[in-house]
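We both want to read discrete structure tokens more fluently, so let's practise on a single case. Would you supply a protein for us yourself, any chain you care to pick? Would you write everything just below, so we can both look at the same thing?
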Amino acid sequence: MIWIIILIVLVLAAIYIVIYNGLQKAKVYTEESWSQIDVQLKRRNDLIPNLVETTKGYAKHERETFAQVVELRNQLIDVPADQQQKKMELSNQLSESLKSIFALAESYPDLKANEEFTKLMEELSNTENKIAYSRQLFNSSAAAYNQKLLTFPSNFIAKIHGMAKVAYLEVPTEEKAAPKVSF
């Protein structure tokens, strides 16, 4: 009889450990996917000064656009690591401002022909794509983690250890709107 009780306790302990470890793994994947976003944001932040310097000489009267890009970049750098939503809001604003600089190339053919500008534009475009992919990865990781927090029996273990849901990164409302097209 005592062996049956010991066996039941060991099985329950093993189940508890497996579930707890699964929760911890899901949490680590979510944190790691956020760090991928951070890496890409840093990469973009490192490219921006070169882009601004390269572009400045061609579009001197576009100082307001450059100032806005630099200001947003500096704000993004100063955001504490634990304020992910604020970081992504600033990142979205920066992406929009960068589109203005990309559009300058159309107005300045010499700039468009500049090899360094073209290379920087390519790198920034690739980095923007990597940021978008990293956001998807984060949301997928967060979904897997949140699912574990809500499903039985892992929800009990999560509550015992005070584990909380992770917020998804959302697309800004203006980016969700259908583009206006006219013929």
Notes: The radius of gyration is 23 Å. The chain has a mean pLDDT of 85. The helical segments are 2-56, 63-78, 84-107, 109-113, 115-150, 154-160, 173-176.
